[in-house]
Every structure is written in structure tokens, then in C-alpha cells.
Amino acid sequence: VPVVCTDLPALREVAGEQATLVPFGDADALAHAMIAALADPPSAQVLADRRAHAAGFTWRRCADRTVDAYHRAAEH
Question: How many domains is the chain partitioned into structurally?
Fold first, then answer.
């Protein structure tokens, strides 16, 4: 599935290179990027890369990273 989102720090961090980023607030750029994504479906390799990237975003991993951050903060 093609991913199109606005170029904001949090979205850029999560999407990485797996998304087409458009300027925040630019509805025309968003529309054009969505049309382009639908007109040019991603290859099987691109989809596999996106799937692998998305697999890293689980609730378990989020919880583990949060606990690790608290442990590091408590040590300092």
C-alpha cells in the first residue's frame, strides 16, 4: 500500500523512506502525491521493504522502549 503523509518530524521518523512526504498544509501536493501513488503501484520489493519497516512498530516494542527509557533516566 502506498503511503503518503505530511512532512512533519513524527511522521518522517515513523515513515522513514517508506512514504512520500508532502509539505504540511499543502492540499494540492497531497492530492498530487496520492494520485501519483495510485497511478504507479509499488513493486513487490518496495512492498516487502515497507512490510519489514512496519513490522518494527508493535505495542510490545513500544512498551519495551518506554521501559528502557525510564531505566536509563533513573540511572542518571
Answer: 1
CA distance 24 to 75: 38
Contacts 24+ apart (CB under 8 A), 24-31: 30/4, 30/6
Q: What are phi and psi of 41, to 5 degrees?
A: -60, 145
pTM score: 0.62
Range of the domain at 16: 4-75
Residue range 55-65, pLDDT digits in tens: 888 899 999 99
* Percent of the chain topping pLDDT 70: 100
Q: Residue 4: count other Cβ atoms within 10 Å of its Cβ.
A: 19
**Taking 80 as the threshold, does the pLDDT of residue 1 lie above it?**
no
